[in-house]
Amino acid sequence: MGFAVVRYLSDEPSGSAAMSIVLHLSTVLVRNGHATDLANKAAWAALDAWNHIKCPYCSGRGVMNIEQVQCPACHGTGERDKAGLPEIVREGISALMEAERWMEGQLSAKLKR
Ligand SMILES: [Zn+2]
């Protein structure tokens, strides 16, 4: 999963990298006990939501300006509200975020060497 995310983020936004992420993700969701076709749809939805997860008002900073006024749209979280998304899609998003954290861990481990 982590490697698919690395490819996706380092590539030009291309169909094949997105495809491989969705494949990995739906595999994860199926393993979590979801039906295959539902997992496929949710994987696409999760990837799409993850691409746009940053709050559009504060670009993910959680504050509006130099005075650090809390962003009214996301209440300082820097993320869009995921509460409206179906459970399976949120599950997919957390799998993607986990993979991203794993990737960041790999990168900083490399830098320390
Ligand atoms: Zn915001």
Globally, the shape reads globular
Q: What small-molecule ligands were found?
A: zinc ion
Beta-strand segment tally: 0
Rounded mean pLDDT is 87
- Overall structural class, as computed from helix and strand content, comes to mainly alpha
Radius of gyration: 16 Å
What fraction strand?
under 5%
Largest sheet: none
Poorly predicted tracts of residues: none
First CA to last CA: what distance? 24 Å
Q: How many H/I helical runs? A: 4
The helix fraction, in percent, is 55-70%
**In sequence order, what are the helices and strands, one letter per element?**
HHHH
Summarize it.
The protein is mostly helical. The protein has 4 helices and no strands.
Description:
This protein is mainly α. It has a domain at 2-53 and 87-112. 60% of the residues lie in helices and 0% in strands. The chain has four helices and no strands. The chain has helices at residues 2-10, 15-31, 36-51, 87-112. Helix 1 crosses helix 4 and helix 3 (36-51) packs across helix 4. The mean pLDDT is 87. Zinc ion binds at residues 55, 57-58, 62, 71, 73-74, 78.
Could you outline the blueprint of secondary structure elements for this entry?
Layout (H helix, E strand, L loop, with lengths): L1 H9 L4 H17 L4 H16 L35 H26 L1
Bound molecules: zinc ion.
List keywords for this structure.
binds zinc ion; about 110 residues; mainly alpha
